[in-house]
UniProtKB/TrEMBL annotation, chain A:
It is found in: Endomembrane system. This is Na+-transporting NADH:ubiquinone oxidoreductase subunit D. InterPro entries: NqrD, NqrDE/RnfAE. It is a multi-pass membrane protein. Its main location: membrane. It holds the Pfam family Rnf-Nqr.
Automatic annotation (TrEMBL), chain B:
GO terms for biological process: sodium ion transport. It comes from Roseivivax lentus. InterPro entries: FMN-bd, NqrC. This is Na(+)-translocating NADH-quinone reductase subunit C. The gene is nqrC. Its main location: membrane. It is a single-pass membrane protein.
């Protein structure tokens, strides 16, 4: 293990350079489903970051004593328990938002992002770096979610955090909400554009093509 | 540290990770601790959650009542109190021995549910509780408003709503959607007051007693239709079938007939 750990690097790496959503394309399901408004995106981000950080900490503490044969199950059980607790807390104290998030809080359990970080990083590192890494990844996920949520709510409802920003046509203004923005496909479009923009700015993120398309035959005249 | 360690905890930690004993013990410990954590959180938070749910339903009912014209006066006379009634659906009478408090417990018993066969089950419910809690508002002796909870199946999942009927038991006074999981922006608009505002004044049955109410595809026409939502045909059909099921013979019809006979 390295004698000195660069915590700043671990923390900020996943924000853009190693962003779990745009580079590794993990956690897409929830990123598409809960970003119809800023409030739900923010709650989901906070919930995932808390679960991820705690799970990484716990897995890292017991990392030397997890038998290899059952390591995935042990990790999933820990993650699932944390998720249930968070879900219960949301239902108790943030009933309105919890209803909007419906099943997606529960689905944090199966979010590849969480298992990916505990399996790939927390299992091999001391608790502090593991938690910093988890927090960084949670934060990177949050940045994308909040960005998508903001864009979708702004153009889909003319509002931010439920506060009207643009004058709606229904109420005598000029802005006609784009209903498409509230549907799942728009999240795909936006995420695709975002990945495109990021990889144009940072060409090192572009993946090598897995296979080359066959040379196109000349069209027969 | 020379020699054998007699502390069982340290001996466990010293076991090789892949030994069968350690695998079992770690699995057991992790599950036990996680189970304790989850149960603890659930038990501790349950009262707050049920209070939230009750408060939300209450708020929806109040909003529904506020929206009904001419009700404010009657409500004031009744001092804002609706009388609650747990109903035995098959008999159309008040259920014996079940109160609002014991309703949840009674409904956790599968014996108190009726399985619906395909012909009866127009709302797609599968089964129906035998007891429902309804609300009545009286103006003097006569019943001026009946609030009936409905359960239906929409496009995305269950829809729960409360339908308010005027004292003639045929004119809708309002509809409140308590819970739904329809597509936001399309079917999800059933929770908007703009759509629900279509309901007051709509009639359920024609002169011969046939249930005519429906959510139209597109603009509603006539006294029995409300406007549909563009792009949410299945949600609209879900609402239509929900209302028709619950006002039909397997729903509240026995109860409504009992009211007409003056039994309440």
């Amino acid at each position: 293990m390295a004698a000195k750990t660069d915590y700043w690097d671990i923390l900020t790496g996943p924000l853009i350079r190693q962003n779990p959503v745009t580079l590794q394309i993990l956690g897409i399901c929830s990123a598409l489903a809960v970003t119809t408004s800023l409030a739900t995106a923010l709650t989901m981000s906070v919930a995932l970051t808390i679960v991820l950080t705690l799970a990484a900490g716990i897995v890292s503490v017991i990392r030397r004593h997890i038998p290899d044969t059952i390591r995935l199950i042990v990790q999933i059980v820990i993650v699932a328990s944390l998720v249930i607790v968070i879900d219960q807390v949301l239902q108790a104290y943030f009933a309105e938002i919890s209803r909007a998030l419906s099943v997606y809080v529960g689905l944090i359990t199966t979010n590849c992002l969480v298992l990916g970080r505990t399996e790939a990083y927390a299992r091999h590192h001391r608790p502090l770096p593991a938690m910093v890494d988890a927090f960084g990844n949670g934060f990177g996920y949050s940045v994308i979610l909040i960005l998508l949520g903001g864009i979708r709510e702004f153009f889909g409802n003319g509002a931010l955090f439920g506060v009207p920003v643009l004058p709606l046509a229904d109420e005598g203004g000029w802005f006609t909400p784009l209903s498409l923005m509230l549907l799942a496909p728009s999240a795909f479009f936006l995420l695709g554009l975002l990945v495109w923009a990021l990889r144009s700015l940072r060409p090192e993120q572009v993946e090598a093509p897995e296979h080359t398309p066959p040379a196109r035959a000349e069209p027969a005249e | 540290m020379a020699g054998r360690d007699w502390n069982p905890w340290l001996r466990l930690l010293a076991l090789p990770n892949d030994s069968r004993a350690k695998t079992l013990i770690v699995a057991f410990l992790v599950s036990a601790i996680c189970a304790a954590l989850v149960s603890g959180a659930t038990v501790y938070l349950r009262p707050i959650q049920s209070a939230n749910r009750a408060a939300e339903e209450q708020a929806r009912i109040e909003a529904l009542l506020q929206g009904i014209p001419g009700i404010a006066h009657t409500l004031e006379q009744a001092e804002g109190a609706l009388s609650t009634l747990v109903l035995d659906l098959d008999a159309g009478r008040a259920a014996e021995g079940i109160t609002s408090d014991s309703l949840d417990a009674a409904l956790s018993d599968p014996l108190n549910w009726t399985v619906l066969d395909a012909e009866q089950d127009i709302a797609g419910l599968g089964q129906r509780p035998d007891y429902m809690q309804v609300f009545l508002l009286r103006d003097g002796e006569a019943i001026s408003l009946v609030l009936l909870p409905l359960i239906g199946q929409g496009y995305g999942g269950r829809i729960e709503a409360i339908l308010a009927l005027h004292g003639d038991l045929n004119t809708i006074a309002g509809l409140a959607v308590i819970h739904h999981s329809e597509t936001p922006g399309l079917g999800g608009r059933i929770s908007e007051s703009a759509w629900q505002a279509e309901f007051p004044g709509t009639e359920l049955r024609d002169g011969s007693g046939d249930l005519r109410f429906r959510v139209a595809r597109g603009q509603g026409s006539g006294a029995y239709e409300v406007d549909g939502i563009t792009g949410a045909t299945r949600t609209g059909r879900g609402i239509t079938q929900m209302v028709r099921f619950w006002l039909g013979p397997d729903g509240y019809a026995p109860f409504l007939e009992a009211i007409e006979r003056g039994e309440f």
